[in-house]
């Protein structure tokens, strides 16, 4: 049996499909109604088990996932979704606590919203995630050839990455982050710049989403993620790609 979760259903123009996994009925009903009124087709379930089953039978374009679920909690649901595919995930957390946010991002979430979630904020995050998990754009012309950075090969036209000639499976946000960094090798990019260019967050964005994505990216492209060669930290400033 193929357990890979589809990366998303075909998005009907103006009607992206959202799978909402939330055990609180009042929150579930309120967000379903609000998002539906803003042009989303919402499929809402109460448990992680139901959510995973629904993914297989009715693939969404994005998952909005409460972390504090009964039974199979949101962290485990997030890990299973991410292990099986690159479906975009926004997590809902009841508290803006470091341990919850960091754990959820480390599990593979693309972004998060703190409850009580205002519908317009959640809807804006959904739109932003769907935009950036589509075709990543670049302000510079797309080269015809594959870029070579040490053992890494980056094909901006095909949106593929290889290491040592072997494909590297990157989630869409990880790919966009790598494309942003490799546009300007050696240049330090601040977390705020990356939040605005990759995540489309404004001034009040949370840099933890950048740090978590960097860690996931390093785990996939570095020989030793504790001693990175490609994505390097410049303490107090941000990140740079290389020099190799």
UniProtKB/TrEMBL annotation:
**BP-aspect Gene Ontology terms:** regulation of DNA-templated transcription
- Alphabetized Gene3D superfamilies for the sequence: 3.40.50.2300, 6.10.250.690, Winged helix-like DNA-binding domain superfamily/Winged helix DNA-binding domain
Look up keyword Transcription regulation and say if it applies: yes
**Cellular component, GO annotation:** cytosol; protein-DNA complex
Binding region for DNA: 144-243
Q: Does the keyword Transferase apply?
A: no
Q: Which UniProt keywords apply?
A: DNA-binding, Phosphoprotein, Transcription, Transcription regulation, Two-component regulatory system
- Domain OmpR/PhoB-type, by residue range, is 144-243
* 4-aspartylphosphate found at: 66
Domain Response regulatory, residue spans: 17-130
Q: Quote the CDD domains the UniProt record gives.
A: REC_OmpR, trans_reg_C
Q: Which GO terms describe its molecular function?
A: phosphorelay response regulator activity; transcription cis-regulatory region binding
Listed PANTHER family: DNA-BINDING DUAL MASTER TRANSCRIPTIONAL REGULATOR RPAA (PTHR48111:SF21), REGULATOR OF RPOS (PTHR48111)
Protein name, as recorded: DNA-binding response regulator
């Amino acid at each position: 049996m193929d357990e890979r979760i589809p990366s998303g259903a075909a998005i009907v123009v103006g009607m992206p499909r959202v799978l909402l996994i939330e055990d609180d009925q009042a929150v579930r009903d309120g967000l379903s109604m609000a998002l539906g009124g803003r042009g989303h087709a919402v499929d809402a379930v109460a448990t992680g088990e139901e959510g995973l089953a629904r993914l297989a039978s009715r693939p969404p374009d994005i998952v909005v996932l409460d972390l504090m679920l009964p039974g199979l909690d949101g962290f485990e649901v997030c890990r299973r979704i991410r292990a099986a595919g690159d479906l975009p995930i926004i997590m809902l957390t009841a508290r803006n606590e470091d341990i919850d946010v960091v754990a959820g991002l480390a599990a593979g979430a693309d972004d998060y919203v703190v409850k009580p979630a205002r519908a317009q904020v959640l809807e804006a995050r959904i739109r932003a995630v769907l935009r950036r998990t589509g075709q990543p754009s670049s302000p510079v012309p797309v080269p015809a050839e594959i870029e070579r950075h040490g053992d890494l090969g980056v094909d901006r036209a095909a949106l593929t990455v290889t290491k040592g000639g072997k494909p590297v499976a990157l989630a869409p946000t990880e790919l966009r982050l790598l494309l942003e960094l490799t546009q300007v090798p050696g240049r330090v990019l601040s977390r705020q710049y990356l939040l605005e260019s990759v995540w489309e967050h404004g001034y009040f964005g949370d840099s933890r989403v950048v740090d978590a994505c960097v860690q996931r990216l390093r785990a996939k492209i570095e020989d030793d993620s504790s001693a990175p060669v490609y994505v390097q930290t410049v303490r107090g400033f941000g990140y740079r790609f290389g020099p190799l």
